[in-house]
């Protein structure tokens, strides 16, 4: 299938970068799980904390350093949403010329890039959920038993930390969070395509759109005061679906009629 | 047949293509000749729907769509493939997308151009990248081949190889439209020359008729047009 072939090439192009990012992020998290017990022991020795208190892995999850290790891939993936397009125009050998002249619907390129970003994000969440218990075991192994309060339930640990944003409690949450993510990626993709189609005028259009979206967001916050949470969720879902459809239609038109390479 | 009718394009106030009309027929090698900025590359991109334009371009009577790309391929001046790919991966890539991909020609052209399948693109010189570029274009099996400056910035041996290729059986029956500055080298291989100046087609000749009727070479005609 053409889509899978393009998807394979997208992954092939970023495989070493992705591998490096995985090593840095998860290596950093394991490093934290190893050094934080040492800090706890030092604090006990210096009487900064009681020797009778016990601790669990949540102390690692709630640290700013751990937050940083999660923010790094989030920011990198966010930047990659634009890079995944621009490198095909500005990299050696204008690969975009090949992509746009392949005997396939041009939106296939869009969907392949979109799927790549979603899969990379899901890959990080999946790897994290697999490695989290191992990080807890590492933490437990490095901390003396008398200071360790025992293994905590993973779900509880996640719910007690900022990680809750990336995980989901039920199907509706999952759909809502990932719909938001997909709509956001599509809107940024559309912004890139507007810039590529109209260049400097496109930048001005994008700036205008960003202001409009910001004003809408402020209005939405005001409206949310007078709505129940489930009503707000439905309203947001409708707005996200509309954004997604508009983004796909505009992107399709730009790719078919206005694209330069 | 590729047919252009009143094709125009502006960049701000500057007209880069101005009311261009002509046709490109199968079995003919047509060369777009012009100085820098004449609008040759923009015209090729317009035909490939790689830049917006006013006017009408049809291929076999149809507007250019994704289906048309099974019959027309663009060979730009720089190989448009990611540099981390090997030649084999490029061949597989094209084979996947082009239904008429010609495996036999691809293998023969690898020999002809002295290319090794396992070589990575990032290790190749400009001349060798152009060889790969042409190989992918010709083996795609498309009947319309649009090439942008295939002879520029590469060594004399590679230029000779490319000129040889353009008169070989591999391009028999195909419509080839390409741009170049290297008039002297291509005079013997092209059927038709389209001269462009300031975004307009200023003259359009069949080279053989030019030689027979006006007793002039392409270079003579070029001097007439541009000097």
Characterise the protein shown here.
The complex is a heterodimer of chains A (261) and B (227). Chain A is built from eight helices and no strands. Chain A is mainly α and 261 residues long. Chain B is an alpha/beta fold. Chain B is built from eight helices and ten strands. In chain B, the strands form two sheets. Chain B has a six-stranded mixed sheet with strand order 6-7-8-3-9-10, with helices on both faces. A four-stranded antiparallel sheet of chain B has the order 2-1-4-5, with helices on one face. In chain B, a hairpin with a 2-residue loop joins strand 4 and strand 5. The two termini of chain B are 33 Å apart. At the A-B interface, helix 1 and helix 4 of A face strand 6 and helix 2 of B.
Total beta strand runs of chain A? 0
Instruction: Give the tally of structural domains of chain A.
Output: 2
Q: What's the Cα radius of gyration of chain A?
A: 23 Å
Look at the structure and name the CATH superfamily of chain B.
P-loop containing nucleotide triphosphate hydrolases
CATH structural class of chain B: Alpha Beta
- Kindly give the count of domains of chain B: 1
Low-confidence stretches of chain A: none
Helix share, percent of chain B: 25-40%
Category by helix and strand content of chain B: alpha/beta
Largest interface: A-B, 26 and 30 residues
SS class of chain A: mainly alpha
Report, as a whole number of angstroms, the end-to-end distance of chain B: 33 Å
Give me the number of helical elements of chain A. Answer: 8
The span between the termini of chain A is 25 Å
